[in-house]
Amino acid sequence: MSSQMTDRQQNVYEMIRALIVKRGYGPTVREIGEHFGIKSPNGVMCHLRALERKGLIRRSPNKSRAIELVEGFDRLGQSLPLAGIVAAGPTTLAFEQSDRVDFSEMFFKDDRFILRVSGDSMIDAHIADGDYVVIQKQDTAEAGQMVVAQTSEGEATLKYWYPESDRIRLQPANAEMAPIYVKDARVIGIAVGVVRAGV
User: Fold this and answer.
1) Are residues 51 and 128 in the same domain?
2) Among 39, 121, 165, 183, the one annotated catalytic
3) In terms of residue numbers, what domain contains 12?
4) For the whole model, what pTM was predicted?
């Protein structure tokens, strides 16, 4: 879809998107005009109508700031799947969820996904309950990497990964919690980023 936009339409879309992400609402027609040196409001409206036709934005008539992004930025391939909630403690993953969270400017790659953290076992690593972690899908990890690991019982947890001689130590980042020792576990992916809840 993005390849069908003109350069100016792409630039206008990126401005709208950046402002909505940064401040929570989109620009006015006047702000767009001033930003791009478009003197006529009608010139701005032409770009907005084109973006609306292409399914990238929605506009509400009679409201000066009512430009919204269409949910799920799949048309541009710039969102990551929200795979579920990962406990800082055991839980199961819910990969069937269809929600998507747009952190593309920071973290987008095809083999990454988002998990929301539940619990406080990684609090000393500055990962709190409700935060989002970006996970790089892979089935191996080096000792000491933060991973989403799945045990043979199907439970998944966010912990530091420490293979030992006859077991695996899943180490929390919380001084008040003991490590989890398991005979068998597999790596689902490694943590590559954190987005604070409410930021």
Assistant:
1) no
2) 121
3) 2-70
4) 0.51
